[in-house]
Specification:
single chain, 13-stranded mixed sheet
Length: about 350
């Protein structure tokens, strides 16, 4: 159940309407192993059906904006900054019935936990708008864009982008099967809500708590020798690898390998990886974890940069043969609290924006 909240914004005399959850979903158990053989719903079919319904709402004027050719270069042009111009149809520009179809499409792309994270991330734009200098028109809970590439149908190959500040969801689907679901980017500012803003979230809300807490738990458990391997820089990177970096698949892993961890430490790392996987539909999460199992957990590395305590600038990477996870927290929030602005991403080292091989 959701409630409708009106958000007064300083830049105009109108009001914005956004949907926010009345309850906060609990994170699924981050177990050390996953039964990837369990029967789960086919998210590819669900996403295709939701995309068909959304496409059916498009007017003749909207279609050239919201539905592009599958091979349009814009399909792989992704970002998470508050850019002035983006591909796709803006949520703000949709009538109410079309907004419902757009949100149903977003919901089909994520798990319950992932979807509620996305809702809160979008609502946080109201916090940013309140505290940033005048002229912050890019800070808008309704400024998220939906783009379909190709014609979604149970037999077609098509793509999807849902994107805005701190969110980038990208899919390629062929014959109702998910071929690629990366890059997947979720970020949040602030990491913990410390101010009451209508329509955002209660004070104390942490949208990406496990992504940080489990990493700190692992770091704290390392002995001196392990820490020397894991800590690769005392000054953290400025951000995650840039979206335009075409060499990401060629970057060698760094840090400490799982085989250098104790069973208990390796279990914490698995929980951390599964926290990211759990943002996705169950079958997509299972496929990600199965790919890691197949490539071998011993080939996964954990690398840390920066301070070793919360509230200080830090960055980590988790990398295996098939994937790269990054979390960067080096920016202050709008109230000046240090390291309270997360960027996190799951990249497919072999299949970002995959194209089917003949």
């Amino acid at each position: 159940m959701r409630i409708c909240v009106t958000l007064p914004l300083l830049i105009c005399l109108c009001t914005l309407t956004i949907w926010i959850p009345t309850t906060q979903a609990k994170e699924p158990p981050a177990t050390a192993t996953t039964d990837t053989g369990a029967k789960v719903a086919n998210s590819g079919a669900a996403i295709t059906a939701a995309a068909e319904k959304f496409a059916a709402t498009l007017t003749d004027a909207q279609r050239p904006i919201a539905q592009l050719k599958f091979d349009d270069p814009a399909r792989s042009d992704w970002h998470y900054y508050p850019k002035a111009h983006r591909k796709g149809l803006q949520y703000r520009d949709m009538p109410t019935p079309q907004r419902a179809a757009a949100m149903a499409l977003l919901k089909s792309c994520l798990s319950e936990v992932g979807f509620q994270k996305a809702e809160r991330i979008m609502a946080f734009e109201a916090i940013l708008h309140k505290h940033e200098p005048p002229g912050g028109a890019l800070r808008d809970p309704l400024r998220y864009f939906f783009t379909i590439f190709g014609d979604p149908s149970p037999k077609s190959t098509w793509g999807l982008s849902i994107e805005g500040h701190h969110i980038s969801i990208n899919y390629m689907i062929a014959a109702n099967k998910v071929v690629s679901a990366t890059p997947t980017f979720l970020g949040c500012n602030p990491t913990e809500v410390k101010d009451t803003v209508p329509g955002a979230a209660p004070i104390g809300t942490r949208t990406m708590a496990l992504e940080e807490d489990l990493a700190y738990e692992l770091l704290k458990s390392l002995d001196n020798q392990q820490r020397k391997l894991a800590l690769i820089a005392t000054k953290p990177s400025k951000d995650v690898y840039p979206p335009a970096d075409a060499t990401i698949a060629d970057k060698a892993p760094s840090g400490i390998a799982v085989q250098k961890l104790s069973p208990a430490q390796a279990n914490v790392l698995r929980k951390l990886v599964q926290t990211y996987a759990n943002n996705m539909p169950a079958d997509v999460a299972a496929a990600r974890l199965q790919a890691i199992e197949t490539a071998g957990w011993d080939n996964v590395h954990f690398a840390w940069e920066g301070a070793n305590s919360p509230g200080q600038d830090h960055h980590y990477r988790i990398q295996g043969p098939t994937f790269l996870i990054e979390l960067n927290n080096v920016q202050a929030d709008t109230l000046g609290n240090r390291a309270s602005h997360i960027h996190s991403v799951w990249r497919g080292l072999k299949q970002d924006f995959a194209v089917l091989k003949k």
